[in-house]
């Protein structure tokens, strides 16, 4: 079996081919697949529509075929907008705002997988995760919206009124009453199946945790001194991995080692709130990537989608794969965090006098650029989640989507400022490095987090939601 260290420093991913069409709401151009290109020439007194475009087998489309095409267009076969998928990803972000980062990653995975299963119950293009319900006459838009709505209502029942209103908006664009009703039923079934499968995944199990008061071990950090966050999350049932420990990281460096000393000096100098060596650009991306990983990477996926539009099936699968990988990244990272229980920079710098290392000097007033989350250091959840998400995005878009990806973040300073990247690898590397620059992780937790994230992402992409043979 591969270990985390087999892949440190590697780069994976290949470009994929272009799409056969771009959605009209993105580019203003409709280029329909050949099977839907129909030229209707009316012949007075004729019973046959001659000269209408051939289908893929070379046959001629007669009047009843044209009527069938019209029906399928109404029910979303010809060209279905992916906007419903994007809309409900954003609704997931809004609904889950009060949750911890790992719980938010679970919400994104629940919603995106339910939508993926729903649309693949209409046309089975990719393997599904939980549901086997099907209805080839259902509206994909209605199915996806209903599935997402039902999952979010189950997770956040207090928000049902708002979510109901959002569902009405989504369904209002489906004009075929029968297709809409079928889509609603299919979406309800897909959501119910997904909720049943994940009902006992361990996410609601309360695990007690008592910090070990010894050098090297995590303990609550200032200024809030909050208790340990989600200490049992490493035991949650993964979405694609065999277990949270499948790609467990190595142990933290010994406190007396040269590697530990180097990491100590780096984060002390670069991660300080008053650092004299951190560049303006490093400060910029330290703030930028501070937001929860699931929020940032779902936004980056939407940014890439605006550059390289996908149909509703590919869009649903992309978000499902990415969010499964992201959620498993959190599970894997939290497994390592609470196995190793390593202390954070703010603790090991302020309390360096207790580490037994003659090359580290305590600074009781040292403060990171931004507050430290209440979880152990090894591995960096941001580094793991970012490289796990990257694997899914590379699978769909290639590493370079074709144009620079430009976006802002909820923690950017100045507010609304943007950053750009030409590849997903570049974004993931910057995201990981930001955790040292912001002063909340040692370099080892970032290096090992990148490696762990690659393994998690590659494994999920290889084994989940596979394309079905035609």
Please name the defining characteristics of this protein:
disordered N terminus; 470 residues; 15 helices; Vanadium-containing Chloroperoxidase, domain 2; 3 domains
Spell out the blueprint of helices and strands.
Elements: H1 24-27, H2 63-74, H3 83-95, H4 101-119, H5 140-155, H6 160-171, H7 177-197, H8 258-270, H9 280-288, H10 293-307, H11 312-340, H12 345-350, H13 381-397, E1 405-407, E2 419-421, H14 424-437, H15 443-463
Antiparallel strand pairs: 1-2
Helix pairs in contact: 3-4, 3-5, 3-10, 3-11, 4-5, 4-7, 4-11, 5-6, 5-7, 9-14, 10-11, 10-13, 11-13, 11-15, 13-14, 13-15, 14-15
Overview of the molecule:
By secondary structure, this protein is mainly alpha-helical. It has three domains: about 40-75, no CATH class; about 85-195, no CATH class; about 235-465, Vanadium-containing Chloroperoxidase, domain 2 (Orthogonal Bundle). It is about 45% helix and about 0% strand. A two-stranded antiparallel sheet has the order 1-2. α5 packs parallel to α7 (about 175-195), α10 packs antiparallel against α11 and α11 (about 310-340) crosses α15 (about 445-465). The longest helix is centred in the C-terminal third of the chain and has 29 residues, at about 310-340. The two termini are about 30 Å apart.
């Amino acid at each position: 079996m591969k270990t985390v260290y087999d892949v440190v420093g590697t780069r994976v991913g290949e470009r994929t081919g272009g799409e056969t069409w771009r959605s009209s709401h993105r580019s203003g151009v409709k280029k329909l697949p050949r099977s839907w290109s129909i030229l209707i020439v009316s012949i007075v007194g004729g019973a046959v529509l001659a000269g209408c475009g051939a289908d893929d087998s070379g046959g001629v489309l007669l009047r009843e075929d044209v009527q069938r095409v019209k029906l399928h267009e109404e029910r979303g076969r010809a060209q279905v907008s992916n906007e419903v998928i994007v809309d409900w990803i954003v609704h997931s972000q809004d609904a889950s705002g009060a949750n911890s980062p790992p719980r938010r990653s679970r919400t994104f995975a629940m919603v995106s997988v339910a939508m993926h299963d729903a649309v693949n119950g209409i046309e089975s293009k990719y393997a599904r995760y939980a549901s086997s319900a099907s209805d080839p006459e259902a509206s994909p838009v209605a199915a996806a919206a209903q599935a997402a709505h039902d999952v979010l209502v189950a997770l956040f029942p207090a928000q049902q009124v708002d979510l109901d209103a959002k569902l009405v908006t989504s369904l209002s664009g489906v004009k075929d009453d029968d297709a809409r009703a079928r889509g609603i039923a299919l979406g309800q079934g897909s959501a119910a199946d997904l909720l049943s499968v994940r009902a006992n995944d361990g996410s609601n199990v309360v695990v007690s945790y008592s910090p070990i008061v010894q050098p090297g071990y995590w303990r609550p950090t200032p200024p809030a001194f909050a208790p340990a966050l989600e200490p049992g999350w490493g035991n949650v049932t993964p979405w694609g991995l065999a277990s949270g420990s499948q790609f467990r990281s190595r142990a933290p460096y010994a406190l007396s080692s040269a590697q530990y000393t180097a990491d100590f000096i780096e984060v002390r100098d670069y991660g300080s709130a008053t650092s004299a060596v951190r560049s303006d650009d490093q400060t910029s991306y330290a703030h930028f990537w501070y937001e929860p990983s699931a929020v940032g990477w779902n936004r980056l996926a939407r940014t890439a989608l605006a550059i390289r539009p996908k149909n509703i099936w590919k869009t649903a699968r992309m978000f499902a794969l990415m969010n499964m990988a992201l959620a498993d990244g959190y599970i894997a990272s939290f497994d390592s965090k609470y196995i190793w229980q390593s202390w954070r920079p703010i603790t090991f710098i302020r309390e360096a006098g207790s580490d037994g290392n003659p090359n580290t000097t305590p600074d009781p007033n040292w403060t990171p650029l931004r507050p430290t989350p209440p979880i152990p250091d090894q591995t960096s959840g941001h580094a793991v989640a970012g490289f796990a998400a990257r694997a899914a995005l590379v699978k769909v878009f290639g590493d370079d989507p074709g144009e620079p990806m430009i976006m802002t973040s909820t923690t950017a300073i100045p507010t609304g400022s943007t950053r750009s990247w030409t590849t997903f690898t570049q974004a993931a590397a910057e995201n990981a490095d930001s955790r040292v620059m912001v002063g909340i992780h040692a370099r080892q937790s970032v290096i090992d987090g990148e490696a762990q994230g690659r393994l998690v992402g590659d494994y999920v992409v290889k084994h989940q939601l596979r394309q079905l043979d035609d």
